[in-house]
Design brief:
It is built from ten helices and ten strands. It has 313 residues and is α/β, with parallel strands linked by helices. Bound molecules: ligand IDC.
Length: 313
């Protein structure tokens, strides 16, 4: 049975992600790296292996919304490149659909710090992609990966800034398709679930994200998580790492285990960063491996091997 055959279309009920019979569902999966840079990993053979061998139930397509690492993002590209990116997302969703996997479409803000920087582009993207993906019941939308700075004050993006953005983007999606779960990023690189819990948005069927990198973010962030859950906030960990927040550094097995046990205890869905062979700790594939599917354990980094363990737990 595939994950989709098991759960069907998902929705949010109270503080949980649930299936058609209102049973709590926990998804686990892998996030692509920047789709502008590593499109080759979006292929059926790879995703099938992740499902069958690693127990993955969701793939996240991280589409950087702005320039990063020498690659233009959706907002600062031309129409031709934007169309290519949308095609790639549709391809990823179709592959997941055929494999019975869930698929997260991620507007990956990062160096565009404040989601309000490109609200018009985000609306344009989500309107276009929602129409194309309307018939796919396996899709979840993530509307702002990691807000991390207010453009005017150069200080943290406030929860009000994010609310302002979400109040424009969510209705734009819902106007076209009002059936998908939508996930909203939170303050401080998506660590501010406490702020979201104090002032949740007034929409149904939405969740909030918390991101952690186990070696950097420890008890302080877990306390915010616990606080938000005590206030019944539906949380989806759309991205986490087993090492340092910059994606590199040492893996911290002990801290990762504490996090994963905490998430599993509450059936919180989680997605690991990242599907690439870039020479950094958070990549799951070793740099020497040029294959884009059919990975053996020897092709996996220490992070990749830990990923297998985490997916199976
Ligand atoms: C990192 C990548 C790295 C890349 C950098 C900038 O691992 O190769 O050079 O982005 O594009 C996040 C972000 C995610 C980061 C990751 C690790 O969502 O894009 O990827 N991270 O730094 N938040 C916390 C950590």
């Amino acid at each position: 049975m595939t994950p989709f055959e098991k759960y069907g279309k998902l929705h949010v009920e109270g503080k949980n992600l649930v299936d058609e019979k209102n049973n709590v569902v926990q998804l686990k999966g892998i996030s692509t790296h920047n789709l502008n840079e590593y499109p080759q990993y979006v292929n059926a053979e790879a995703f099938k292996q992740f499902r069958d061998e690693y127990n993955v139930s969701i793939m996240r397509l991280a589409m950087y919304s702005a320039f990063a690492d020498d690659h233009a993002g959706y907002s600062d590209s031309d129409d031709e490149h934007r169309a290519k990116l949308e095609d790639l997302i549709v391809k990823g969703v179709e592959i997941c659909d055929q494999l019975g996997l869930y698929c997260m479409v991620d507007w990956h803000i990062l160096f565009d710090y404040d989601p309000n920087m490109h609200t018009d582009m985000a609306i344009r993207f989500f309107k276009s992609i929602s129409a194309k993906l309307k018939k796919f019941d396996n899709v979840i939308y993530e509307i702002c990966n990691e807000p991390n700075m207010n453009l005017e004050t150069k200080e943290e993006t406030s929860w009000d800034d994010i609310r302002n953005y979400a109040k424009q983007v969510i209705p734009a999606i819902r106007e076209i398709d009002d059936t998908k779960v939508i996930i909203v990023g939170t303050t401080i690189w998506s660590q501010g679930v406490d702020k979201a819990a104090d002032a949740p948005l007034d929409f149904d069927n939405i969740m909030y994200t918390l991101h952690f990198y186990a070696d950097t973010h420890r008890d302080q962030l877990r306390d915010k998580f616990k606080y938000a859950r005590s206030k019944d906030l539906p949380i989806f960990v759309t991205e986490f790492g087993v090492g340092r927040a910059d994606g590199d550094g040492d893996i911290n097995e002990e801290q990762s285990k504490i996090w994963i046990d905490l998430l599993n205890g509450e059936k919180i869905s989680h997605i690991i960063w990242n599907l690439s062979n870039k020479a950094e700790t958070s990549s799951i594939i070793v740099p020497e491996c040029k294959k884009t599917s059919g990975f053996t354990d020897a092709d996996l980094t220490p992070c990749g091997l830990m990923m297998k363990d985490i997916m199976r737990k």
